[in-house]
Design goal:
Blueprint (H helix, E strand, L loop, with lengths): L4 H37 L4 H10 L4 H22 L4 H32 L11 H43 L8
Length: 179
């Protein structure tokens, strides 16, 4: 894919692997925060829940949306650039599917609820608002699951690569026995 030779491509893959790991960690923060809030948010009355949704989470999408897309793109790049490495490639494919699922579930669950509640007030809160709350929380719980799976898979690839490099460096060392 690159004309710089194997060393240049290996360096690019290593750099993308490092960036992907950091971005993958960042991509877990929002969904895990929502998951940790879930038990308490399920106890809120409708007016307070609506107020939190409309005020506390303002701007989260502009922060975490690009991070999730970057995680997807990094994972996709790793998948495409490691054609000869079946072990790592399968993991990168899992990460790609997880990030695609996170984005899809956001639009299927969370965005639908966000669009609806943007027009509500405490006085116009629908009688079935708990159904919307459950849909919103479910979407973020699934995103947390997918983000953690993707992060673990990318971390595993990173560790495996580090161990392989370490083993390769140690194979060049000769040990002298003393008698």
């Amino acid at each position: 894919m690159f004309s710089t030779g194997a060393g240049g491509e290996e360096d690019r893959v290593k750099a993308i692997r490092n960036i992907a790991l950091v971005v993958a960690f960042l991509a877990t923060l929002g969904p895990i925060a929502h998951l940790l809030e879930l038990p308490s948010k399920l106890t809120l009355d409708g007016a307070l829940w609506l107020s939190i949704q409309q005020n506390l989470y303002r701007g989260w999408g502009t922060l975490f949306g690009p991070v999730e897309i970057a995680a997807l793109l990094c994972s996709l790049a790793l998948f495409l650039w490691t054609k000869g490495d079946r072990g790592h490639r399968n993991g990168y494919l899992i990460a790609v599917v997880c990030y695609l699922s996170m984005i899809a579930y956001f639009f299927l669950f969370n965005d639908v609820v966000n669009q609806a509640l943007n027009h509500w007030t405490a006085a116009t809160l629908p009688h079935d608002w708990t159904r919307y709350r459950l849909k919103w929380e479910t979407g973020h719980a699934l995103a947390a699951l997918f983000s953690v799976v993707a992060f673990v898979v990318l971390l595993q690839a990173y560790i495996r690569e580090a161990l392989m490099q370490h083993a390769g460096q140690n194979s060049n060392v000769q040990f002298v026995r003393s008698s």
